[in-house]
Amino acid sequence: MTIEQIAEKLSRGERIDATEAKLLWEKAPLWLLARLATEAKVRKSGDKVFYNKNFHLEPTNICLFECRFCSYRRCKGEAGAWDYSMEEVLEQVEKRKTSSATEVHIVGGVHPDRDLYYYAEMIRRIKTIMPEVCVKAFTAVELHYMIRKAGLTIEEGLQLLKEAGMESIPGGGAEIFDERVRAEICPGKCSSAEWLDMHERAHKLGFDSNATMLYGHIENIDHRIDHLLRLRDLQDRTGGFNAFIPLKFRSANNGLTELGETSVVDDLRTLAMSRLILDNVPHIKAYWVMYGKEVAEMALSFGADDIDGTIEDSTKIYSMAGAADERPRLTIGEIEKMCASAGYKAVERDTHYNELNGKRKTEPTMRSESRGCLHTMPSRKEEKPAKQD
Ligand code: V47
Ligand code: SF4
Contact 372/76 with Cβ under 8 angstroms? Predict the structure, then answer.
């Protein structure tokens, strides 16, 4: 197949395979990727670009794991470690009580002394303070650790969190699915199969979720394509992913600093190829906190239709890894301007991509039906990650 033939196939809305994706990724001119990704974006979301009003809670950066790309984790007692008490976390929520945030995004380090029941209680208490806020919480890595530690099956653990008020699962922890690359950059944490399995089981219980890919470190284009195809396969089975978020590796203050960072052209090609390969995922998010506002604006011409939230100084993952802005904030006016200059209309959404049109949701809108459980996994005792602090 030639690039022109693959382009025609995509313009007809047909699916491409790994070989076709590789040819396009490596050889297609940037303008063609922009055109094809825009066609695919417009087919899914017309002239809309989505944003939400959210804030992040990061209860702790103390983590059992030692991912080499992570600038954020600390050992207990180390300079720069934080470990908020339940009351301190709830105080942060109280401060946002009267804001118009519709989502709280909770992630953090995998703390050895915290457990599933503690986090379920945290969610319950957050919902008491802000009953209407949607709790999008815990990467599959955190969930895997806390559910196994509790000795429950994945379904039992997820069900417990659902009953506490959790509605959606963020996309973190996916990194790169290729097992050899994963073993190099984040040894010991949940495997690719376990990450995918967590999301599959969650989708079948009625949660929706996101997926990410950490790129720009030691992986190559084949690994990126393999990652996207594993997500596409899962999405074919469940339909539970709302959005895919390519995460550009930021190189400051971590174990892979010497690698440097990808070019903006690589970032735009990656966004476009994500849109083209993931033909069954409705939204591609250009996470502006990580790209910066200018590249996020360009991303809207390369298949992205979501720029995440208006975050008020509340995520440290990227500022600690060298993202330019230490107090990331984007006003609604700036979002509208950014979308308009790319030729789109800014639309506020909730976590589940219901359009809000100035309204707040009043009822939780989890994926409509539980799809019935997979056969349950046997309970296992807590498994210690290979590396510990
Ligand atoms: O899993 C850690 C990544 C993720 C670095 O679901 C890094 O809406 C780049 O998943 N350079 C957590 N990335 C954040 C995340 C996320 C972000 C925004 C929206 C959503 C969503 C999810 O951050 C981790 C890891 O892959 N990460 N360190 C770094 N140095
Ligand atoms: Fe821990 Fe997450 Fe950092 Fe890995 S990326 S060390 S799991 S905080």
Answer: no
Q: Which ligand gives the minimal distance to the CA of 249? A: 1
Residue 389 lies in a domain: no
Q: Which atom of ligand 2 is nearest to the CA of 69?
A: 5
- Residue entry with tokens 């502006």: 288
d(CA 255, CA 39): 39
pLDDT in tens, 8-41: 999 999 999 999 999 999 999 999 999 999 999 9
Q: In a 3-state reduction of DSSP, which class is residue 318?
A: coil
Residues with CB under 6 A from ligand 2: 63, 65-67, 70, 72-73, 109-110, 141, 186, 189
Question: How much is the pLDDT for 175?
Answer: 98
Residues 160 and 151: beta-carbon distance below 8 Å: no
Summary mean pLDDT of the chain: 90
Q: How far is CA 329 from CA 160, 243, 264, 306, 324, in A?
A: 33, 21, 21, 16, 12
| DSSP assignment string, 321-387 | TT-S-SS----HHHHHHHHHHTT-EEEEB-TT--B-TTPPP-S----SS---PPPPPPP------SS
Which whole number is the average pLDDT over 93-115? 95
The CATH number that applies at residue 186 is: 3.20.20.70
Cβ 308 under 6 angstroms from ligand 1: yes
Q: Which of 383, 382, 384, 372 is nearest to 155 (CA)?
A: 372
Q: Would 387 be classed as within a structural domain?
A: no
